[in-house]
Amino acid sequence: MKGMTVIVKKTTQLIAGIVFLYGIYIILHGHLTPGGGFAGGVIVAGSFILLILAYGSDFLNLVKEERGSTTYENLAILVFLFLALTGMVAGVGIFFANWLPHGTPGELVSAGFLPLYNIFVGIEVAASILTIFLALIIFKEEVLK
Amino acid sequence: MMNPLIPLFVAVPLAGAFLTMILGRFITAIPRYMALAVLLFLAFISFWSLVVGGDGSSVYTLGGWEPVDGVPIGLYLVHDGFSALLLCLISLVGLLSVTYSVSYMARYTSENYFYSLFCLMIAGMNGVVLSGDIFNIYVFLEISAISSYALVAFGVEKNELEATLKYQILGVVASFMILFAIGFIYWSAKTLNIADIRTVFSAGHDNRYYLLIQLLLLTGFGLKAAMIPFHAWLPDAHSSAPSPISAMLSGVLIKAVGIYVIIRLFFNMFEVTEGMSIVITTLGALSMAVGVFLAIGQWDIKRLLAYHSISQMGYVVMSVGIGMILMARGIRSEVAALAITGGIFHMLNHAAFKGLLFLNAGAIEYSVGTRDLREMGGLAKGMPVTSATSLVASLSISGIPPFNGFFSKLIIIVAAVMGRFYFLALLAVIVSIITLASFMKFQRYAFYNIDPGKIRNDIKEVPAPMLLSMITLAVVCLLLSLLALPGLRETVLSPATDILMDQLKYSSQITGM
Prior knowledge:
By secondary structure, chain A is mostly helical. Chain A has helices at residues 6-28, 37-55, 62-89, 114-144. Helix content of chain A is 70%, strand content 0%. In chain A, helix 1 packs antiparallel against helix 2 (37-55) and helix 2 packs parallel to helix 4 (114-144). Chain B contains 20 helices and two strands. The A-B interface holds A 67, 70-71, 74-75, 77-78, 81, 84-85, 87-88, 92-98 and B 2, 4, 7, 11, 14-15, 18-19, 21-22, 25, 60-64.
């Protein structure tokens, strides 16, 4: 896949970082404001996809990238499960128990496990959407060959 | 008392699926042993829960969110007599299919994807069976459905891709209808918990929406269960998948995400009404009769078996429907209990013999390289174990004593006669005879018919892991007939019937009122 014109490339360069940070913001504030892991993860994946669309995929080793994002996706979901399972071992002994201190409502570090869940859901969603996108490009390039 | 093992039914196969994907990249032997370990663990805890749980139910509140004023908040996993049976079924057939796959799947590439998707499908089915929350049923249903779409296409050839496309399109239509119905339920009842929906609806509801919800759910899950007007995807999908997957799809998946949910919702979520139970009985009788007529002309073994799945599921649905009609009329509740018990019993039996038949078909395909009955013949000599086990399964499905199929069909027919549904009883007998004819054809053409022109001496028996699964399932087919004995029937099948018959038990154990 070829890249686009210089104007598009430059604009994307300016925007992608902001989009990425905005995604991180949505993920981290998931327990305070609307949004959360899923919405933020989609935005984070969006910033990568924007860059790939603008610059083209010729300079990327697609298979390697796809393998990396799949690994992140699998790891994130395993960590998520692990966090949920810690509830069975520690404290009250219930799956998904929120046994960390809850803190003051409204502060960034509060609500026990919820921010952690949001972060790993964010990684999971970002990685899987990127994986799907990369898989589609790989498929297209194979067809063109 | 909460059974602490309940969330592990979903968590362990999920963890297994994703660990397989990571570790399988470095060590090629890991995926199959990981899947075997996961299924062994699940089989162990499911039977342990069945034995220890007894007739009591166990409600697990995720995150420890207790009900407030009898209104359940949060997510619930419900392990009662009915779901315990289904869990045992899923893990047993799953374990034997994985054992079988160790040899069978060695011919395919990317084994780690296969075992990972297999574990995901198991996680989804366990989730559907355990969930006490209609939206979570939908979520887990999609997990198992999406992994089964991928597994059906695992061969990646023209037939497989065509079958999976058909399966996906109809599956998505079904999921859409289910989601639409869930939306209507949430809009009119303001809750998604099955027990709570029951309480809200029994306090008063608008009949038009109620009927729409019921019909949408029946159509959606009827599509998943391949009842007769909605069956178009099943013969293609079940015959194109790799054989261990066909055994899972036909043996377990259509029950766990189709029949189980229909029974659960129409007994425990909606009040049993006469109109709806007549619709369900008609669908069941129709599937039973039409399925077998479609099956008898087939020459492809796996298509023949797939059509028989439709027909046998028809028995289950018809029998449960007879129970529902009697319950709705409020008469002869012991006959209703007998009919429901017969349906559930036949569901268990079908998982055993249809799983075994698909594994046999896979073994034939593995050794002979064809699925067409006309190109086989005289295989009994080269493949004695496959021949013997498939004879057991064929006799079971046709209802010949002392195999399990006989006892469940007997209970169903006796219940139909006692409930004065003479026509349905006659239909069940006729369908059973045609089933016998169709399996005599299978046995004759595959194993005994020796055509001197094309005798093949190169046919060898399949490897040991495949034999092990087939022999175990054949033994299970025999052992399941013991469930018809009075002592065992009360401890294993009656808790499942009770939870369906007792209209208030299911919701009261969740709301705690």
